[in-house]
Amino acid sequence: MDKFDCLQLFIRVAHLGSFTAAASELNMTQSAVSKKIAWLENRVGFALFHRNSRKIQLTAQAIQYLQYSERFIDEMSHFESSLKEELKQVKGQLKLSVPSSLVTKLLLKPISNFMKIHPELTIDTSVNNRRIDLVENNIDIAIRASVLEDSGYKARFLFNHHPIYFASPSYLQGRGIPTSANDLLSHDCLTYSLTTPSNTWRLRKSNQADTKVVVKEVFKSDSPELLLEMALLGHGITALPHWMVAEHLQNGSLIQVLSHYEPNILPMYAVFKNDEYQPYRVRAFVDYLLDYFESLAELNNEE
User: Phi/psi of residue 241, each to 5°?
Assistant: First the structure.
């Protein structure tokens, strides 16, 4: 067997915590995974996993061996890429994780343009709103609105969201239009479940402290698109980025409320692994997104 191949398999099994999950990801049978791990254990002379009927766990020796194996694979990949000049070319596969609300409205065009510029590149895009582990999920770049908590990641600022509050005309006709933050206490609200806590909204007037309101949640979801649809159906007030609702505001199917409050700016980042041997395709795509959204912001400011 190929030891390099078995080391890569060991790393994926360790991060996924399952022979079955690794077999599914790598399109292998579970028995083939078990045989390769057993072969590697025989070569190194110690067990890599504690096994029982429900789960597997790294042994004490394997925890150290995993760190070494990851470093070895990275260095070997870097060396091979240098020989093939991959670090100077945009080619291979780029794996992205992007929020569902952004992918068609804001990210489809730059992704499409980048693929046209670099025809030897393939892009694998996962649509996911939740914060994920890039290493565990084998993701190159995630587009997220989050503060970095893991020193193993880097982030580059892309653009700011400008959320606004809105509801349908039918809802406001029956319940009245809120004119202050505290008015929200008597309204039904549609909240984003991935914020913590989801039922606490902060509103700000110029040069004043934030007003914190614990709203009445009648519906919450981790899908911005679903919150928008529920607002259109007249179920309450919600807050989403202006670009998501601009068309509905223009045709009158939604009405902005509390516009005299300043929006809580939500910055978006390109998050990627803090890896000295980062493939050039990763850095090239991040740089392209930075230039794209900077140009878009300048164009909007001119208008």
Answer: -60, 145
